[in-house]
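Let's study my pick:
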Amino acid sequence: MKVLGILGSPRVGGNSDILLDQALEGVRDAGAEAEKIVLSQKRIYGCLDCKECNETGICVIKDDMLEIHKMILEADAIIHSVPVYFWAMTAHMKAYLDRWCAFFDGEWNWHKAYHQRMKGKKIGLITVCGDPDVSITDPIVYSFKNTCNFSGLKWLGVVQASASEKGEVAENEKAKKEAYELGKRGVTV
């Protein structure tokens, strides 16, 4: 079993990264392989809505997302971790998520080339905001849960945490434990 961790924060070593590492530790402790991608270190352009992928299942944009698509297809579960930027996900995560359209045909069904490989794939989410009210992250949760709902992916759950200063979440034992358990669920559920 393989779990892919996707970091949507440009702040490596920051709060979203710390919690993603906790989740991936849970993955490894549950006996699975874990791999992490830092989106800010990749070249990912926004979707052009050219619809070429509707027929081929392959995006025409030649950037790092083509390799990430392959990694998504190989993974059994994907755990995303992203902070709130202006009440939404980061530009890195949004560009990444928009490019998932290559997995679908023109009717928004799984593309025939990917249906069997995406069916039953598990998705988890970690969100971090600077506000003490973690419901600020709800728009991000909504995006990922709706992606699961319309496509039939299995929702593993969400960890919503509050932290502002870089590394502050390392003192939040509750959030770290929840992230660790989310990682374990990616393997055992």
User: Anything to note?
Assistant: The beta strands are 2-7, 33-38, 77-83, 122-129, 154-162. The chain is about 40% helix and 20% strand. Residues 45 and 62 are 9 Å apart (CA to CA).
